[in-house]
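re: ur question from the group chat, yeah i did fold both. here u go
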Amino acid sequence: MTQPTDIPRVRTALLLASDGVPALPLRRGKVPFGNCPTCTQNACGGRPNMRTPGSCTCPAPCHAWAAATTDPRVLTSTSWARAWRDAAAVAYHPGGAGLTVVDLDDPAAIAWAERSLPTTRTVATTRGEHWIYQGVMQSANAVRPGVDIKSTMAYARWLGPGTGTITALPDAVRALAVEAPAPVRPVPQAVTVPVRGGGGECRHRTPTYLDRGIAMAEQRITEAHSAVHATVYRTFLAVLSTHGRCGCLTDTHVTRLFTAAQAKGESVRHCTDAWTNAHTALGL
């Protein structure tokens, strides 16, 4: 029988925990696992003190980033074993480790950081880089084109230790969360499900095509005046049915959808549950 410590991602999480970095598993789509039966539909009352990592006391990794923990007994518990077996990645809570991650999602964002921010430890991502600073601040999304800030009440994928020396969180990064202008969104247009030819290039990788789809989804959520839960779920389902199988969606795209839903009163947990249920319905 496979023991939790035999699972490579559990060993990674234990190494992070030994360094004081709260860890948690992520499923496909780079999102946390849905809440356990004890907590589904907020039956647990949302749990107290969800603003601190490790505050979730559920029998499974619930409540998204708040499930992150440094407790090896929790990380290797049998109730977490299934999630680890199904996990696609390991994540961590930067704020819980006293860190802030500046998530740079494309070459243009990296070029801006190189001009504007002090050098620090850098971790390569699929499309960009994570710049890691020592210090904690409020998390914020889309503070600049292709730039997110992940610190308190957020999670980031663990992609390795990176290179360079961690430096102190600069005022230039803190100012982004305070003075960030509202992002300019493209005019939503109708999106059709593309037909992928054998061996052809994925159309979703065209930035304009994908951005229009995300903008349309944001507008659909924003304009909902009733049945918000159902609208969010149907919108997530539509986005994933079009873009969920090609690897085109980035953390920034998912964050934009979650942010739009939260602006309508949805909690992070409801967003995570809807996203997870949409994945399940589509067999992703």
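okk and heres the other one u asked abt
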Amino acid sequence: MPPTLVLVHGAWHGPWCWQPLVDQLPGVDVVTVALPSSGTDPGSLGDLTADADAVRAALTGVEGPVVLVGHSYGGIPVTEVGAAELGVAHLVYLCAFQLDVGESLVSSLGGAVPAWQELHPTHIRVTTPEAVFYNGVSPELTAQAVDRLGWQSTSSVTQPLSRAAWRELPSTYVVCEQDQAIPVAAQEAMSGRAGSVLRMDTGHSPFLAAPAELAALLRGVLDRVG
């Protein structure tokens, strides 16, 4: 059975961000996960546990092997949940946080959020998404994406990991060399935990900036797994 691609979005985003990539993957079974930590109501956002539960539920619904992809913050619930018993055959960290047990997103940043984030007790707002997330993306797609961004729960980025799936499963890290959200040096440091490293000459959102190139990269991973 060919592997299924399960896509986990990053902070402030939703499954909508993957659509240009999905359009480039005819013939591939693709499942997208909606993380409860991102949404439009700051009072009802989930934490990392809720995100992990959402990824687990998606994996439970898939038959056969899975290539599990996490983008940015999405690498954290992927790391918390990914397991062979849930069908995961390979992990892909797409300019994502590949962290270890006991680490959280905020702790990996030295205990403070970047200047382009506005921190509140329950949620975080991104202040300059055009420059941080969408360099290299067309103005039209950038405007559409910015309009759809939500809030991100504070608890999701401060809760530490209880397990590290990459210690048990094969993994690939994709370094995005023009990323303005996660510095390349930080990506390269985390990529040392992956079994293989690939690179794209894009900003933080290759699924919008270069969906065909990203699709080709992921097809390569699927072929190796399948």
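fwiw on the second one: The chain has a mean pLDDT of 97. Strands lie at 4-8, 30-33, 38-39, 66-71, 88-94, 117-119, 123-126, 151-153, 171-176, 196-200. idk if thats what u expected
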